[in-house]
Amino acid sequence: MITIQGKGVSTGVAAGPLYFYQRASGTLRRFEVEDREAEFARFKAAQAKAIEQLGVLAEKARAEAGDEAAMLFETHQMMCEDLDYEEAIEGFIKESGLNAEAAVTDAGAFQAEAFAAMEDDYFKARAADVKDISGRIVGILMGVVQGGIDSDVPVILASDDLAPSETVQLDKSKILGFVTSGGSGSSHTAILARTMGIPAIIGVGDQLKPEYQGRDVIVDGGTGSVIIDADDDTRARLMQKRAEILKRQELLNQLKGQPNVSKDGQEIRVYCNIGNPEDVHAVLENDGGGIGLFRSEFLYLNCDDYPSEDYQFEAYKKVLSDMGGKEVVIRTLDIGADKMIGYFNLPHEENPALGNRALRICLSRPEIFRTQLRALYRASAYGRLSIMFPMVASVWEVREAKKMCEQVKKELRAEGIPYSDEVDVGIMIETPAAAVISDRLAKEVDFFSIGTNDLTQYTTAIDRQNNDLGRFFNAHHPAVLRLIKMACDNAHKAGIWCGICGELGADLELTELFLSIGLDELSVSPRAVLPLRQKVREAQVRNVREKLLADLMSDENTI
Ligand code: PEP
Ligand code: MG
Q1: 456 lines ligand 1 (CB under 6 A)
Q2: Mutate to test the pocket of ligand 1, among 453, 460, 498 (most ligand atoms within 8 A of CB)
Q3: pLDDT by residue (tens digit) across 345-392?
Q4: pTM of the full structure
């Protein structure tokens, strides 16, 4: 039995085979083959597999976001079979004797170059598609699995850390839990695990060895331990713990349908954070009161090119309709820093977390912003939508963004396209600047939602991705808590609501403080709704308010 210790960032106990996430190595081998016919047959088999994979993706996209979404994958299927493309590959293999991986890469590059040189924008854009399908076929030839999991049974997925673009591609039905060597509690692997309601352990470093692949593993997200080939006693103990967790979940289920009201009558809204239209299922399952944060950038991460207005419209419409009139706060595109997207072609930056990201990109590339806003306003006719801008630092940014909203509404009106007049517009408070000028910002918008993941990162100058800063990181740093109070007080002075949508919202040690501050909403991962409801219902806010607020502002607090 081997025990590895990491940090648990999503609770629960799960058992299954350990499986290392597979990535393309990036080193393409190039050599002359002996049997050219056999090599061409190898290409044909990979081509057929690529077409099959794309068919599955098309159906998934159709179910999640409609016909337009499926079209991209169907176009890729056709391009895989394109005669010119195939003949070029055949030539490289049969005439030049190249191995299939190199032949596909060269034919793809050649065709992509030809497309890129065309005048017509539509054909220019096909260059990225050819590269994409070539990458897929080469990946299959090299044994790299798209989505990272080539296993018939569900697994405990091991990796260094997963990029957001990798998490969106994962076949979630195959994952029982996560173990990562790096990462942090607010990294996207951790957020995904909490949304899925499965255990995750991060920061195990080099204790995780490739030779453990396929071995039996039990992960305990509560204690952060990973046990390989557990002995009988340990297995029995952990399986017992698992049964208790499930039983507790059953008890929590009895809280479904109950209000989030403290013993002395203070109410708070408990909403959910999601990344995909399909997550709505978990929101409803856990009785979330609404959606407080839909990270719309995951739609972009899921695509190989800028998602069209119709594609986005279908996805937003689905979330709004599936939520049946409950409030849905959709955050506009928040890419850059830890969420990079190739086709945006963002230049390399020395400090991407402080660079061109989120609203900054939207304001400097208005055509992208406008497409998203049009899709959002069109979808607003199907439910109760609120729009939220991320990474705000100044009043002028909010005014510009709101101006864009007005322009888009004007266009839709002129085109006779319906939209709701009741859409609220709010901002995230996730830079210290926004918190400090929240009195001014509150006059510009309908609500604040505090992004504590970034607010903590920027306030304490601690990289949210870096798990090695251990003792320097304090999730309850008074600077962050005071900024939360400042933003909330300023919101209330201006008569608008204020919530938290960062991970701190689910921290049960802070629930009483958040109620004392008077926050109106906490938006958390779906699985955190019922434990949070239970905590709220046990609280007697009147008894603790004065002391907690005095402690928060006290100069005795020496952190
Ligand atoms: C945050 O920063 O707290 C937040 C909710 O946004 P994200 O984690 O997507 O950056
Ligand atoms: Mg953020």
Answers
A1: no
A2: 453
A3: 888 899 999 999 999 999 999 999 999 999 999 999 999 999 999 999
A4: 0.73
